[in-house]
Amino acid sequence: MDDKNKVGTRKSLKWFLIRRFLIIMFLIYVSEELIAIFYDKLSTVISAALANWHISVSAGGNPVSFTLQMLLYSMATLLPSTISGYVQGIIGKWMGDSMRIAVTSPLFKGRWGIILRIVVIVILLITLLISLLPWLLGAFYYYWIVTKKVNELIEEEKAQQLVYDQQRNLLLSDIAHDIKTPLTTLCGYSKALQDDLVEEAKQREYLEAIHTKSMRMNELLTLLFEYIKMDSSGFELHKEIGEVGELLRKCVAALYTDFEEKNITLDINISEESMPYQMDKVQMTRAITNLLNNTIRYGREGGSVLVHLEDYVITVADDGMEIDREFAEHIFEPFRRADKARSTVGGSGLGLSIAYKIVQMHGGELLLRLDYGQGYTKAFQILLKD
Questions:
Q1: How far is CA 144 from CA 12, 56, 141, 155, 364, in A?
Q2: Three-class SS of residue 176?
Q3: Phi and psi of 329, rounded to 5°?
């Protein structure tokens, strides 16, 4: 999964957790208000019952120690009366008088008094549990939805990683095929030259073929090496202030002869306005060069290419091969290429992905426009943030 998808996943998870947290806190607040209303009504009934039965309940201490004291006292009341009083005396002495609970009534004595204390303690514990119930349920529900969401994202990442690995393995297989084909030619031609099996008139033709195939292999290996290097965690840009216009002119000049060989007309419109930008000149050069090479490879023989710069927007457009709209949605993904046949003309499927990653690392954006117009079938635009 690429960096853009990872960032999107992290943002999606963050806002999902925040929204669910706020919803749960609101529900807890509403629940507490309803419980408070319920307690208010219940306290009126209980107060009347206690008054009619002449029952007096008093207690002290903080809620935590009070709860612990009630639990110990409730267990002590299950013991015989003589032992119960002794144990409760030890508890009271150990925990302090301020933590005592007293339940008295002239109508409930002896065993009935013990039962009354147990009933009152149980009621208080149930009341405390009801007060804590919204928080307990909220915490449990939040844990459940977070666990479920994280598991969904893990499964989604696994699925995306599986697709990524399949695409990578397919392209590596294609690159191996693309390297093997010219390598076989190199071996055959060089062997023929070594064994003096080639007529002198054709030797130059053989040498040119060897050079062409060697350059193709070098290009494939260079692209593969660059992508692997940029995809590693330790890769960093070395930024410095540079002029975008000057850099773009150098990129075009370096490939000028390649455009001439294909009889492509260049329409260069680079603004003279100063556009300083904090960038890694080597990597930005590679990104722009990859776009220009793409127009040479897929451009029309005798066609035209537009190179335009204005307001920190670099446009490289051509009137060559059209791009399918469905494929255009995935064109910057690594190991993607439009041609299904493994031809040397088709490219490696890494050039645009490398350019996209470089621009993204500079804080910019690389876009493909199929509706650029002006007679051009497609246009790649680098949007740099000034």
A1: 18, 43, 5, 17, 38
A2: helix
A3: -70, -20
Burial of 116 (0-12, 13-18, 19+ CB in 10 A): buried
CATH number for the segment(s) 240-383: 3.30.565.10
Residue spans of beta strands (DSSP E) within 92-193: 101-104
Q: Which two tokens stand for residue 120?
A: 């009152």
Q: Which residues pair with 240 in a beta bridge?
A: 279
CA dist 119 and 105 (Å) reads 13
CATH architecture of the domain with residue range 170-231: Orthogonal Bundle (1.10)
Task: Tell me the pLDDT tens digit for each residue of 66-96.
Answer: 666 666 666 666 666 667 677 767 766 666 5
Helix, strand, coil percent values for the chain (each to nearest 5): 65, 10, 25
Please report, for residues 103, 115, 133, the alpha-carbon distance to residue 297 in angstroms, rounded to integers and kept in the order given.
93, 93, 68
Model pTM score: 0.55
**CATH code 3.30.565.10 region(s) in the chain:** 240-383
Q: Contacts from 321-327 at CB under 8 Å and sequence distance 24+?
A: 321/377, 322/370, 322/377, 322/378, 323/368, 323/370, 323/377, 323/378, 325/370
The strand pair at 56-59 and 101-104 is best described as antiparallel
DSSP string, 348-381: -S-HHHHHHHHHHHTT-EEEEES--BTTBSEEEE
pLDDT tens for 254-294 read 999 889 989 999 999 999 999 999 999 989 999 999 999 88
- The answer to whether 329 and 343 have CB atoms below 8 angstroms apart is no
Q: How far is the C-alpha of 175 from the C-alpha of 221, rounded, in Å? A: 9
